[in-house]
Specification:
The chain is an all-alpha fold. Helix 1 packs parallel to helix 5, helix 2 runs antiparallel to helix 5 and helix 7 runs antiparallel to helix 8. The relative contact order is 0.11.
Amino acid sequence: MRGEDSYDIESWEPRTLMDRFSLRLYGFLAEAVRGATLVLALTFVFIELGLVATTLEKRPILGLLSFVSIVPALLLALYIWRVDPTEREPIPTLVATFLLGVVFAAFAAVINTFGMGVLNDVGIETLAIVPFFFLVVGPVEETVKWLAVRFHAYRTPHFQTAVDGAVYGAMAGLGFATIENLTYVVGTVGTNGGTAVTVSGVAVTRAIVGPNHVLWAAISGYYLGLAKIVSSNRGPIIVKGIAIPAFLHGFYNSTAGFVTNLLSSIFGGDALAWLLVYVLVFSGLVASYLFRKIRRAREYYEDQMRLGWL
């Protein structure tokens, strides 16, 4: 081995014609997969929006109610953006991540609908609904929100810290909640006649639960940012980052209706009011987990800047 380097033994860089061909082919295939993924997601979401637009054209008030339903989630996402201790993330990248959250939500809608259809066909929907929340809905929806961050923002030079990941995750969650709220509100018209009281109730319900999507996606984004820094353990960190919000998502879906009805039957009162109480407690605990990590990161970066290391 005298006079030779470690090329093709423990290191590699494009030297030969085949090396350069392999590098370019890999780049082409990677971009092709990204492009195909985006085109497929856009196809699904355009179909969904086309169906929604038909209803909005007849009842534009539904669009206003859908926007109102997203305001709490929007305010939460903006707050997470404001607490970034390093630098404000650029608006174009934030908007792109929001839009990808909207687009990739279509994947979750298709998979969830297919899964529920299978349960209906075999007649075990009631028995399997809780495992379905934990094994399908939670993991699928949190993965597509994570994908919305990983697809673009992660690849930019602005994505540098764990808190950056939380910011972009919040925007992906906001995009997901936006399209989900829109379809819930508009879908109410087709399912039960869509009286003003019913549609308004759905909008209020979505406004209450929408911030959860922002919190869950911010957690997965935080760990994606951490994984980018700690590259030696990137895989396990990413798995943890998706597993935590997926579990929280499944737990919430499995318990919200039961707890709300239980509290309403014991103490009386409107079920929607008890849902608000439950969500405030549940989301408050999740938010405390997230913001405790953000606060520690903020203190760390402030110390680093004070010492001149950043």
